[in-house]
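Technical appendix A lists one of the benchmark inputs used to test multi-chain prediction within the project. The record comprises two sequence entries:
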Amino acid sequence: MRKITRVLFASVALAVLSIGAVGCGTTPATKMAQANQIVITSVNDGVSEMVSFINAGRATQSQIDTFHQVYNAYYAAQLSLKAVNLKLAVVEADPTLPTVSQADIDDARRAVSDAEASLLNLLNIYLRLN
Amino acid sequence: MEEALTIALPLIEKYAPQLILDITAALQKKGYTVAQIGAIYAQVKPWEQLGINPNAPVRPEAVEAATFSKL
């Protein structure tokens, strides 16, 4: 449990850094998606631990409900960033298509960052206290 | 969290409906990029696919309160 707590704490910091980081992809859209990879991996690790926690019967119903709500917000945020990334990739392939505004890119990144931070903070609380 | 939803949902509505057509066009010209992005985001599972057992027992909410009241 201590290991996962350390992972979760570290992942919050890493996630903040990775949102603005640039990977080694071939296009801006791919690079942006790859930069988000570390967020996805970190969150998946924490979520996997929480799923085990729930399936072991150690979570209360209110904890499960809150986790469900926060996870859905995270999933929606990732879906929006995926949509923006795919749209960027499409525009790169065909510049005649309408592009994605920088404001929308920033909004999608911010939504993922906020939702990811909320989710990891929640998992930190549940997994550390129980 | 609510702020994240407020930001995310309009973006999904704005970009998702056209995505199928756009992705088809992109796949014809530069499919590997879209495939790479798709593979990355395929790791983000919807709630229903997280593997939570709906029949798993839950810890009673009242246990902690009862414990504290005894103390």
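Chain A touches chain B through 60 residues (CB under 8 Å). Residues 24 and 30 of chain A are 9 Å apart (CA to CA). Comparable benchmark entries are summarised in Table A2.
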